[in-house]
Write a structure and sequence with these properties.
14% strand; Rossmann fold; 2 domains; 423 residues; three-stranded antiparallel sheet; six-stranded parallel sheet; alpha/beta
């Protein structure tokens, strides 16, 4: 039996890959019934790095607790199934290009005419307007276009290095989708009105950089100076690493920085975070060092003498950290009140006592692939606790169930399957 604040809410999901599926999985974790529409072959993430036919870890991690409804939306009979379902649907989530939904007959105007208070969340790569509106896009491109990739400051040979740790724009947009759905449900509860909601990978990626992307003339003399240098180097055909260095993306905070970074230890690595003067004093006492670095009152990252001194002083601190183990440094830093932690791999983090104590993992049993452990829902709610509704569905597992609930007879279901409209 589902539990959570969204029990009784029904979601029809037309999404694939990461952003849309993660958003709808969050809604499922909150108790909503999520019906995921998949093509006859399954959505692409099912087919990526399969360990069994039609099953991949990527799909499992983003589609738990959902029902799989197989529809071939290129067939008019399948679209009629959608129209028959919509009167009992609260939220539609879609992440096709803006032109695709209209071609398939599942755009907001068509579906809201069937259910006027429908909440329709439309996720695109670039937004619905402008010259890129109908372009396809993935997380890596959103990272590039938004500035996230350059801000990370990585270089792979002569090219920008990608952010490989996480598809940030995708996962962030998934959270935005779930947030938008909850806000729209609250609005509908008060007013009776549904609405059309837009999210995009580009907007999410920009939002993650809000304080860096904003323009503030009173404080941005350095920014204008470095962008003028970037423009000049590009006009001269300078290689990308030179342009990146001129911009200083990801670089200035590392010059002379001993207070907010990770260090290699004798047997691993440890991260230190000290953003206030009092915490930085505790770092100096713990190491020990007297070096202020970029927090010194006269420090100038553009001054070659300061940069040279920083290289020497930071190297001394780095050498000190390599003398002791991670456990020894954690004991020292914690004793001095310094915020710190080991640099884990995610496999280690899933088993960490802190993770386990707070119920941040959940054990599931998939009908085709057996036991698995996933990251638990994002929230803890005392009055309406979230609960994972089950593992990801086998392709088409719930097609007949969903159609029967919508009033289809066995004969009608057989006819739809016979013409290829359903799987």
């Amino acid at each position: 039996m589902a539990s959570g604040p969204l029990v009784g809410i029904r979601v029809l999901e037309f999404t694939q890959i990461i952003a849309g599926p993660f958003g709808c999985q969050n809604l499922s974790d909150m108790g909503a019934e999520v019906i995921k529409v998949e093509p006859p072959e399954g959505e692409p993430w099912r087919l990526y790095s399969q360990f069994l036919p039609g099953e991949s870890k990527y799909y499992h991690a983003l589609n738990r607790g959902k029902k799989s409804l197989v529809l071939d939306l290129d067939r008019p009979e399948a679209r009629e199934v959608v129209y028959r379902l919509v009167p009992d649907i609260d939220i539609v989530v879609i992440n096709y290009r803006p032109d695709v939904a209209a071609k398939l007959g599942i755009e907001y105007a068509r579906l809201s005419a069937i259910r006027p208070d429908l909440i329709y969340i439309d996720n695109t790569a670039w937004g619905r307007k402008g010259p890129w509106a109908n372009r396809p896009g993935y997380d890596i491109i959103a990272q590039a276009v938004s500035g996230l990739m350059a801000a990370d400051g990585k270089v792979d040979g002569t090219a920008p290095g990608t952010i490989t740790a996480s598809p940030m724009a995708d996962y962030g947009t998934g959270i935005a989708i779930a947030w938008a759905a909850c806000a729209a449900l609250y609005h509908r509860e008060r007013t009776g009105q549904g609405q059309f909601i837009e999210t995009s990978l580009l907007n999410t990626a920009l939002a993650f950089q809000g304080m860096y992307g904003m323009d503030l003339p009173a404080a941005d003399a350095l920014k204008y100076e470095k962008m003028a240098m970037v423009d000049q180097l590009r006009a001269e055909g300078a290689p990308y690493p030179d342009v990146l260095e001129a911009h200083g993306a990801g670089g200035v905070p590392r010059i002379g920085n001993v207070y907010y970074r990770a260090y290699a230890t004798k047997d691993g690595a440890v991260a230190v975070g000290a953003l206030s003067p009092s915490l930085r004093a505790k770092v100096r006492a713990a190491i020990p060092t007297e070096y202020l670095g970029l927090y010194g009152p006269d420090f100038d990252a553009r001054n070659p003498e300061h940069v040279a001194e920083a290289a020497v002083e930071v190297a001394k601190v780095e050498a000190r950290f390599r003398e002791l183990t991670t456990a020894q440094w954690l004991e020292i830093l914690e004793r001095h009140g310094v915020p710190c932690g080991p640099v884990n791999f995610v496999e280690e983090a899933m088993l960490d006592p802190q993770t386990q104590a707070n119920g941040m993992t959940v054990d599931l049993d998939h009908e085709a692939t057996g036991p698995e452990t996933q990251v638990s829902p994002l929230l803890r709610m005392s009055a309406t606790p979230l609960e994972v509704q089950g593992p990801s569905p086998v392709l088409g597992r719930h097609t007949d169930e969903v159609l029967r609930a919508a009033g289809y007879s066995d004969a009608e279901i057989a006819a739809l399957r016979g013409c290829g409209a359903i799987g």
